[in-house]
Design the sequence.
């Protein structure tokens, strides 16, 4: 939701949070966040790393900015656009984001493809 439209007293669904639309809500649900209160006291970097691990994808650092914005809001801060957290993210987590990327998931081969390749799956 656009941070300008967020009302703390009506924040019930994940999409009621600042900077969270349907796609981000699905990402939060993938890592076990089902409602806004589940974000209370959570570390945004832990959330980001868990999402990268679960999806086996290194997400854009702006996803961490969104996690910073929603945890800030849930912990009592005002609703701000995600990009307002970029400078703080670079200061706090810059080195943590330059580490190794999670291993990419290998595409699954169908049984027909394996047979065509003479039994080799790769």
Sequence:
């Amino acid at each position: 939701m656009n941070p300008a439209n967020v009302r703390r007293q009506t924040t019930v669904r994940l999409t009621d949070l600042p900077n969270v639309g349907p796609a981000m809500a699905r990402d939060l649900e993938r890592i076990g966040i089902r409602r806004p209160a589940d974000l209370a006291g959570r570390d945004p970097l832990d959330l980001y790393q868990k999402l990268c691990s679960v999806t086996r994808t290194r997400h854009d650092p702006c996803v961490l900015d969104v996690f910073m914005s929603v945890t800030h809001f849930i912990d009592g801060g005002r609703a701000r656009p995600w990009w307002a957290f970029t400078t703080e993210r670079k200061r706090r987590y810059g080195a943590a984001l330059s580490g190794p990327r999670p291993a990419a998931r290998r595409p699954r081969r169908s049984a027909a493809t394996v047979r065509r390749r003479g039994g080799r799956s790769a």
Observations:
- The two ends are 43 Å apart (CA to CA).
- Residues 3-116 form one domain.
